[in-house]
Amino acid sequence: QVQLVESGGGSVQAGGSLRLTCSASGDTFSASCMGWFRQVSGTEREGVAVIHNRSGSTYAADSVKGRFTISRNSAQKTMTLQMNSLTPEDTGKYYCAASGAVPCGLDPRQYHFWGQGTQVTVS
């Protein structure tokens, strides 16, 4: 089991920045892939960016490339999402997730462990 806790959400004006952090505990060695996903009420959860824990390889959705950066600190068991140039379309609840399956992809169905989410609102 992997436990995940997100922090860092909030409200920001368009063009601003936010930094989300995911803290992991438990059997983190089993989590080959970790990622950030977001969901707007009434819509399906979508992948934002993912990272392979061992290699550090990343993959991001086209809608956030060049604006969002995913990274991890293996020693501290944390993962971050630096979000710049935010737009109202980035509004949603952001979730941290982990999976033992590879390769790391943006499909939420691949991920078995989820945090409770943190709200991001861009106006």
Oligomer type: single chain
| Number of continuous helical runs | 0
Structural class by SSE content: mainly beta
- State the shape: globular
- Main sheet makeup: 7 strands, mixed
Strand content: over 45%
Radius of gyration: 13 Å
Whole-number mean pLDDT: 94
Helix percentage range: under 10%
N- and C-termini, Cα separation: 37 Å
Structure characterization notes:
By secondary structure, this protein is an all-beta fold. The protein is built from no helices and eleven strands. The strands form two sheets. Strands 2, 4, 5, 6, 9, 10 and 11 form a seven-stranded mixed sheet that branches. The protein has a four-stranded antiparallel sheet with strand order 1-3-8-7, with no helix packed on it. Strand 7 and strand 8 form a beta hairpin. It is globular. The mean pLDDT is 94.
Topology:
Layout (H helix, E strand, L loop, with lengths): L1 E6 L2 E3 L5 E9 L6 E7 L6 E7 L5 E3 L7 E6 L4 E6 L8 E8 L13 E2 L3 E5 L1
Parallel strand pairs: 2-11
Antiparallel strand pairs: 1-3, 3-8, 4-5, 4-9, 5-6, 7-8, 9-10, 9-11
Descriptors:
mainly beta; 11 strands; 0% helix; 123 residues; four-stranded antiparallel beta sheet
Give the structure's gist in a few sentences.
With 123 residues, the chain is mainly beta. It is built from no helices and 11 strands.
